[in-house]
Specification:
about 325 residues, alpha+beta, six-stranded mixed sheet, two-stranded antiparallel sheet, 6 helices, elongated
């Protein structure tokens, strides 16, 4: 679904905002992030307003996620490095995600052997020149599975093995495993546009980190410091939702969470969840007292109405007898 032209811009199912109001919010957003890469750009495309840029998303997962794992006979696609968890994503034309088929071959090198310039394609120390603009990081293949049994690793081999461990959000991910839990509250970002719906953004984020879990397991939530949690629907546009909520992440953040682990919290409920239990009990007591008063008022009102009806019935029944 794309943004509509004219004065009304859809920002969700049956929800619209005027173009001028959206541009005003966008101006405020960019002033807040002046000089930073989180500023957003907008353009006209066939008469439609398109906003694009980076969206910060905080990790709010409680269970481990599965990263793609391949054996030594396939191209090695390393897990994300510490820097890539905080960077933009790889997009092709029109914001499309680069598919795995576009990934370059990653060479297998001997960590302590210089590349050979003779007879390329032969020998364990051979390397292939890669495109410097390749979207994936290069790394050497692990020596796990090819090291002779009983042999002792040399210092060079130990250094190579250490290089195969990646620090993600302050935690080490070992390439021999495929399970990882990002630190709660840590932030990553994806480059999206205002025409992308929630499911599209979810798939883009999972593809960026080569996460095998289905996008159906997750949802995006707008979480406020007040405790309010609002789930973004499938028809919502996360970038527009972020713009309309304002740029300050001390007030609200976009979180990636498991669907079955999170309950939405409305604004009315969020007003009370941060109070201590004694205060909440006093609120409940006052509400019960108010409820009792209202019940008494209703009982009194309907008891009077009942008496009036009964009197009228008596008058009607006595009428024919008097005649």
């Amino acid at each position: 679904m794309e943004l509509g032209g004219g004065d009304a811009v859809p920002c969700g199912k049956d929800k619209f905002i005027s173009r001028n109001e959206l541009l005003l919010h966008l101006k405020t957003y960019n002033i807040y992030y002046e000089g930073q890469n989180l500023q957003l750009r907008h353009r006209e495309e066939e008469g439609e307003l398109i906003v694009e840029g980076l969206l910060n998303i905080s990790w709010g997962l409680r269970r481990p996620i599965r990263l793609q794992m391949q054996d030594d006979n396939q191209r090695i696609r390393p897990p994300p490095s510490s820097s890539s968890w905080h960077s933009g994503c790889n997009l092709g034309a029109h914001g499309s995600v680069l598919k795995p088929s576009t990934l370059p071959d990653i060479p297998v090198t001997d960590g302590d052997t210089a590349p050979s310039t003779e007879n390329p394609g032969k020998g364990a120390g051979t390397t292939r020149i890669l495109d410097p603009e390749a979207p994936q990081l290069m790394r050497t293949r692990s020596d796990v599975g090819v090291r002779p049994r009983g042999s002792v690793r040399t210092p060079g081999e130990q250094r190579r093995l250490r290089r195969h461990r990646f620090s993600i959000n302050g935690h080490f991910y070992n390439h021999k495993t495929s399970v990882f839990t990002p630190a709660y509250g840590s932030v990553t970002n994806v480059r999206i546009n205002s025409a992308m719906t929630t499911p599209q953004v979810l798939k883009l984020l999972l593809n960026k980190f080569k996460i095998e879990n289905s996008a159906e397991e997750f949802a995006l939530y707008m979480v406020h410091t007040s405790g309010e949690k609002q789930k973004l629907r499938g028809s919502d546009f996360p970038l527009l939702a972020r713009i309309l909520q304002g740029p300050c992440e001390q007030v609200s953040k976009v979180f990636l969470m498991e669907k079955d682990q999170v309950e939405e919290v409305t604004y009315d409920v969020a007003q009370y969840i941060k109070f201590e239990m004694p205060i909440l009990r006093s609120f409940i007591q006052k509400l019960e007292e108010e409820e009792d008063r209202e019940v008494k008022k209703l009982k009194h009102k309907y008891s009077i109405m009942r008496l009036m009806i009964e009197q009228r019935l008596e008058e009607i029944s006595e009428g024919p007898t008097a005649m």
